[in-house]
């Protein structure tokens, strides 16, 4: 009996160099992939899911606050991975970042290389994407997902075989919405394709590489996987993603505890009559006072939520303090900020790191 050789596991590139401008003030001191989601840096969930899919070697393409990644993850052995780090001296865009790390890849020209954006939370079947890439003989495969309103995204129509037929910028009129399929931010490249990306200059895979390959007759394959998918580009989306991980709506083997209504990290202190719901996370050394109500929110390391405060769909930064009876709804409070008692912050308000809001300084009447 002849035994076929095992298919080698693909390696991966993780694009984690973005500045996270839309997430400020969460990203003032911390790069976006290192902001905690469900109790650990978001990047931990991506690494753990890649490892669960059989990936063993991952190169991290870093730029903004690049120095924080390696001290935390090291060589990746704690996650069963071999991690390498490459830092861009100047921002190179998605395509440029991929090309910049190519020298660290071990794949042969026809081998598949997975590429993940560092701000997407997804339930994508990674193995299925690679298998589909191999089966169809594609040069590049893209994870596509369907969204109810695609106007904020680039559209990626495909034919009946799943081959990509065009890349369309954000549609402006109903006539331009020819599909509800969008680029979901995970790809498989043949290694040889990566080597064709221009080196040492900014390149966008979305605007330059993909359209250029299509125009040259390359085979670009789309695989629609409409399981859980969320772009964590805004504070509200990030908080929602963290809550969904805790609730078990978004899959990850890296959640440090059982899925449920709440996740309280070791060394946190929560008053007995405080109520935590909706996937709320209380970080290490944080404290929640008597009678506080926290729903669908993240309270980071060392933060304090005082007695009677109400926090909903919000993020409280590391070392911040929320005063007694203060109400946060859809708000972000930066690291080390102080929000005094009896304030109301709603509807996307962002409090900068280290800010100090006195007691009762911000109030919303019921008719606002």
Automatic annotation (TrEMBL):
Pfam families: GMPPB_C, NTP_transferase
Domain Mannose-1-phosphate guanyltransferase C-terminal: 261-339
Residues annotated as domain Nucleotidyl transferase: 12-244
Family of the protein in this entry: Belongs to the transferase hexapeptide repeat family.
Protein's name according to its UniProt entry: NDP-sugar synthase
Lineage: Bacteria, Bacillati, Actinomycetota, Actinomycetes, Kitasatosporales
């Amino acid at each position: 009996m002849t035994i076929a050789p095992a298919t080698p596991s693909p390696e991966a590139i993780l694009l984690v160099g973005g500045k996270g401008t839309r997430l400020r003030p969460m990203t003032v001191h911390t790069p976006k992939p290192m902001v905690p989601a469900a109790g650990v840096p978001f990047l931990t969930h991506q690494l753990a899911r890649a490892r669960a899919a059989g990936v063993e070697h991952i190169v991290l393409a870093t730029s903004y606050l690049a120095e924080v990644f390696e001290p935390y993850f090291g060589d990746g052995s704690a996650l069963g991975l071999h991690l390498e780090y490459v830092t861009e001296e100047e921002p190179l865009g998605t395509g440029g970042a991929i090309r910049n790390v190519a020298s660290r890849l071990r794949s042969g020209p026809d081998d598949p290389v997975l590429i993940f954006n560092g701000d997407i939370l997804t339930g994508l079947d990674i193995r299925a994407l690679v298998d589909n890439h191999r089966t169809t003989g594609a040069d590049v495969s893209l994870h596509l997902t369907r969204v109810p309103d695609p106007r904020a995204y680039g559209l990626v129509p495909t034919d009946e075989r799943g081959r990509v037929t065009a890349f369309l910028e954000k549609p402006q009129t109903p006539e331009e919405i020819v599909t509800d399929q969008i680029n979901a931010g995970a790809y498989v490249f043949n290694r040889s394709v990566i080597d064709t990306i221009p080196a040492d200059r900014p390149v966008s895979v979305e605007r330059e590489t993909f359209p250029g390959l299509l125009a040259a007759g390359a085979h670009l394959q789309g695989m629609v996987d409409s399981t859980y998918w969320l772009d964590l580009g805004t504070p509200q989306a990030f908080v929602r993603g963290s809550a969904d991980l805790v609730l078990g709506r978004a899959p990850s083997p890296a959640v440090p505890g059982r899925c449920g209504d709440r996740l309280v990290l070791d060394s946190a202190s929560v008053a007995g009559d405080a109520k935590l719901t909706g996937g709320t996370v209380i970080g290490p050394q944080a404290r929640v006072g008597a009678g506080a109500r926290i729903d669908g929110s993240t309270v980071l390391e060392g933060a304090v939520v005082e007695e009677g405060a109400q926090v909903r769909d919000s993020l409280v930064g590391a070392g911040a303090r929320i005063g007694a009876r203060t109400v946060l709804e859809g708000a972000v409070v930066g690291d080390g900020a102080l929000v005094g008692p009896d304030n109301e912050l709603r509807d996307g308000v962002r409090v900068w790191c280290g800010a100090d809001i006195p007691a009762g300084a911000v109030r919303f009447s019921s008719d606002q």
